[in-house]
Amino acid sequence: MKKLKLADFSEIKAVVTDVDGIWTNGSIWLDSTGNSFRSFYIHDGYGVKNILKAGFKVALISGSKAEDIKARAEKLGVSEIHIGVEDKLPVFKSLLKKWDLSEDQVLYIGDDQPDVEILDRVGIAVTVPNCHISLKEKGYYSTELNGGEGALRELCDLLVNEKEG
């Protein structure tokens, strides 16, 4: 995995993210009735607000159908929320068309096998140190911080700093 560098971000117009393992640390808590709960890192949320304010398009694509993901993203102002998605590539392609962007203008951050098909296509492919081992050998960029522990904020700060020049 390669370390992220500020100069690599100049062509990026949009950020598309996975959720579990990126917005969260990948843990899911279950109560005795089977309801699930996630923990979202508060600093990541501020980062998402900042990249939206800076003019970046933001979308999330998650295999999970959990409504807490939607609630968190909506609270931060993200309008492109795609949950319960088993095959992420068609959703990604529809976002490119809607936004009139090329794959090279997108940064994608993911942490497991369902993300690879998109990671292999985008301008900047990013993962986290606590990603699945199969992604560590692919040569993607990596944040220094783990998913769910500030990785998303780290990425957002780099994007905003690049845009502000």
Describe the model.
The chain is of the alpha/beta class and 165 residues long. It has a single domain (2-164), classed as HAD superfamily/HAD-like (Rossmann fold, 3-Layer(aba) Sandwich). 34% of the residues lie in helices and 17% in strands. It is built from 6 helices and 9 strands, in the order E-E-E-E-H-E-H-E-H-E-H-E-H-E-H. The strands form 2 sheets. The chain has a 7-stranded parallel β-sheet, with helices on both faces. It has a two-stranded antiparallel ribbon with strand order 3-4. A hairpin with a 5-residue loop joins strand 3 and strand 4. Helix 1 (42-53) runs parallel beside helix 6. The longest helix has 14 residues, at 151-164. The two termini are 26 Å apart.
What key attributes describe this structure?
7-stranded parallel sheet, globular, 165 residues, two-stranded antiparallel ribbon, Rossmann fold, alpha/beta
